[in-house]
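Bit of a strange request maybe. I'm writing a small parser for structure token strings and I need a real example to test against, not something I typed by hand. Could someone generate the tokens for this chain?
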Amino acid sequence: LTEAMRRFEDAARLPNPQSRVVAVSLNTSKLNDQDAEAAAKSAEDELGLPVMDALRFGSRGVVDKLISDFS
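Reply from user aminoacidic:
Good idea to test on real output. This should exercise your parser:
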């Protein structure tokens, strides 16, 4: 995930050099709730960013991060 995030940031910085990843959305549709939560927690620990499946668990963590970073 860390390498994928770096590549996304590199691509996003082509038109906007200040672009950065502030959160990650996972598609956990093939996982049960317990495994989905564990996957999100593992990704958060690895990346140091809010990680969620917005359809399954909502987007509160991302909203909080955006408000914190951009207000």
